Structure prediction request, 453 residues.
Amino acid sequence: MRLFRSLFVAIRLWFALIAIVLLFVAAYAFPILFPLMKIAFAVFILMILLDGWLLFRQKEAFFARRELPDRLSNGDENPLTIYLENRYGFQADVEVIDEIPFQFQRRDVLFKAHLNPRETQAIRYELRPTKRGEYSFGAVNVFVLTPLGLLKRRYQFEQGRMVAVYPSYLQMRQYELLAATNRLNEIGVKRIRRIGHSMEFEQVRPYTIGDDVRTINWKATSRRTVMTDQGTRSTTLMINAYQDERSQPVYCLIDKGRVMRSPFEGLTLLDYAINASLVLSNIALYKQDRAGILTFSDHVGQLLPADRRSGQMLKILELLYRQKTRFLETDFESLYASVRTHIRQRSLLLLFTNFETVSGMQRQLPYLRRLAKDHLLLVIFFENTELRSLLNQPAADTEQIYMKTIGEKFSYEKKQIVKELGQYGIQTILTAPQNLTANTVNKYLELKARGMI
Prediction:
């Protein structure tokens, strides 16, 4: 029974069988063909038996292995590899079907390969999850054909594996690497021009091209003036180097209410906010600040106090992994009460939420103003990209004119929200979801450069 379960018929056999049947039918009209067809049919049966013997004469004649990360990164292209090894003594055509989790809703994970005897080969492809949680991978099904190509033998490997999908740690590592090499501008993070200096003096060091000449330390420079053997003076310019103030608390306040359920390119706004919070927390820790997380919806969820110890990023990652959208109205009063109770030191609060109308924002404005009174508040909400694409298209009839007029109204209200929040000294970011991370990191670096936190 095990042998028959692994035995499949190739399409070449069906074509050959149809051809034989048609020729047998033709033999009734031309009897001279009938003896030849008997011989052809016998040869056909022998070829099937030979094909089956070649496939099943060895017990473990083929090997495959799926290699995937211990966890997948949400919203990113995650690389997977399937290694194939042909242990047969003949060239084998191979069809590989990988049983990926049902969350991907893909039925096209079929690969074909041609392997020489004793040859190994790697098949690489990518998967992009759009929802956090546990994903169950099934078996790797390998169908092997001999050069005759009449029968297939199925091998099954990697019988089931559970993998967790975490917030976008690949994006976090990318930003961390570029920050360490001072190349954040490659992914849209702008260079911020410093206005003045922070209050923390770091060291006196030699001048290098690009340093601010206003920071030259003339006393230290005079001590570095020496006479050369030729009787001339050699001077090394020295400057005062300053560093950003450290250990400043940075909190990401993540709204989990129904306004964050809206989808964009497969991800919800909550997932975009979670991915941006993970990246920003890592950048803040790299800048020697303290990073913390607070989630809320109709009530306050989890609070992770700001810290910069070695295990803080792991705590942030595990906390963000478990967050889910709630379908109730967000309670900003509970948020304000929790911040007032648990966050006593003046901090940078990055509030990830979404406002569609001015009236919706004005209902929460009293609590936003109170938060801004004790902390530096940065409100981050989202631009409707579908609406923007509608506005960029010309109107062809009356109905589209009405649609564009309504769209202009909603777009104008978003701009009014930014303007009204700015009147009360509240920093804002209105951004498209795909630009959220870069714009948030830009604003954080700008606020640090201006010495506002």
About this structure: The chain has three domains: 1-166, 169-193+245-449, 200-243. The radius of gyration is 33 Å. Residues 85 and 318 are 38 Å apart (CA to CA). The first helix runs from residue 2 to 5.
